[in-house]
Amino acid sequence: MHYFTTLNIMKKQEFKYYIVISIISVLSIFVFRNDLRKIYFYQLNFDQDKAKVIKDLGNFNLKINAFMELSLSGNVLTNNEFNASKQYMFKFKDDKEKYYFSFLSKEDSLDRFEVHNVVWHLGYPTKKNGAIELFEVKLPFKDFPNKNKLLYISTKEDCRTLEGGMIRFLWDKAYGDVRFVGNKSDVSAYSFFEVSEPINQVEQYIETSKILISILNTNLSEDDYINLLTYTVNQIATYDPDKTIYIVTPIFRKENKRFELLLNGLLELQNSHKQVTIINLKTFYQERRNGDCFKGYKMDDLCIKSLISFIKKRIESVND
Question: CA-CA to 227 of 20 to 30 Å: which in 114, 145, 278, 309?
């Protein structure tokens, strides 16, 4: 009798161990998949099945000089065919694998191109030179119906430089909760709306998206800046007069008269338009832990992530 009692106790203990091991295994798989998702979050954005070839640009000789630098030679392309606002794909003549990329700048002379600040969308070639076929393509992001849409309004210049060129990428990397929408794409394929264009190009997003106007760096005069934003706010109001519009104040490395004029103009815009909420970066500057973020030419990634967190909290604190 004692033998069977002991045996039953052992079986119960073994069963508990199996349960614990099973739970640990499931959690390990979940953590592993979550880690992979964080590492490859950018590549997972793209829907390769919906990639479309826009134009066959011909045959070239390719040389990859560094991760973000490459050279093309052997054929002629116009500036309209090969520029920083488009996406491209190439295949080596002896390989069926497709490689997608965009870039920020280039130098060209006759049939040779030096391409700088290259962004690889799905994978990086192990082969570094050879004959290729080059195509202009459209490689879309997946729809992600569970993500909240954010109509990100800015300028092409701001979305390509300094903090403005990284904020959507780092936002997605840190949180993965937003699908940026608009009529243009940055070099990493994140969408935004060009503030100087008619708002009817994105009218389908106005009612279904949060709206953020974020021109972090601008050379516009105070009057031109405020007039442009006032015009944009009034355009949006024709579609939805009660829609909350969040406006981030520009970044300044130090406080000066121009900063105060822009800030005062934005606060007046908020007072005259009930739907406008200003996200005042002066508060961000004054937080002790962010004090070093404005000492250099550009914020580092850690500071930009802190800026994103600040903006997110301000948006989430307002009930639309």
Answer: 309
